[in-house]
């Protein structure tokens, strides 16, 4: 379906500049499948916003938890409670910092895929460890909530790669 699109907005005219321009006195007219073009721009922007918000939430949580692994003695006791050795807390803290950086920095290649996979394993393992050690469902469900946010970030990342 073809629409006749009229606009005095310079940015919108620049965006639609790839199609035929019809000038009629001082009014700018353009023939464009405007409905679909504008919908794509809106979807791309929504995908980018979803990606950055979900990725920022996951990365902030990972940086905060990594900091807590090094600075908070209660977290050290929590690792002992679920049966993990102390060196694992340090390794996991370093891995979380590196993973958060990889998610935030625009890097090409498969390294982002590895970060997403690593965080998925961490969240599922944390939930299982809390359940196995007798913790409440609240403790076990928190990692799964962040797994849902991570999944949203992952799919938005791949959608933005397709769109862009």
Using only C-alpha atoms, the radius of gyration works out to 23 Å
The helix/strand order is EHEEHHHHH
Please provide the count of β strands.
3
Mean pLDDT over all positions: 82
Low-confidence stretches: 1-7, 18-35
* Total helical segments: 6
Given the C-alpha coordinates, what overall shape results?
elongated
How widely separated are the two ends? 24 Å
Strand order in the largest sheet: 1-3-2
* Strand-residue proportion: 5-15%
Derived from helix and strand composition plus strand pairing, the structural class reads mainly alpha
The biggest beta sheet is recorded as: 3 strands, antiparallel
Structure description:
- With 164 residues, this protein is mostly helical.
- It has 2 domains: 30 residues, no CATH class; 124 residues.
- The chain contains 6 helices and 3 strands.
- It has a 3-stranded antiparallel beta sheet.
- Helix 2 packs across helix 6 and helix 4 packs antiparallel against helix 5.
- The longest helix has 38 residues.
């Amino acid at each position: 379906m073809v629409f006749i699109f009229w606009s005095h907005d310079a940015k919108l005219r620049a965006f639609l500049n790839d199609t035929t321009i019809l000038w009629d006195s001082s009014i700018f007219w353009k023939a464009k499948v405007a409905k679909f073009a504008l919908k794509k721009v809106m979807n791309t922007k929504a995908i980018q916003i979803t990606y950055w918000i979900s990725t920022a939430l996951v990365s902030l949580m990972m940086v905060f938890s990594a900091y807590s692994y090094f600075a908070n003695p209660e977290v050290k006791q929590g690792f002992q409670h679920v049966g993990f050795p102390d060196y694992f807390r340090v390794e996991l803290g370093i891995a979380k910092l590196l993973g958060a950086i990889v998610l935030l920095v625009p890097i090409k290649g498969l390294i982002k895929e590895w970060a997403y996979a690593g965080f998925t394993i961490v969240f599922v393992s944390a939930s299982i460890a809390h359940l196995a050690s007798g913790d409440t469902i609240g403790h076990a469900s928190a990692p799964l909530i962040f797994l849902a946010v991570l999944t949203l970030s992952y799919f938005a990342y791949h959608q933005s790669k397709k769109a862009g």
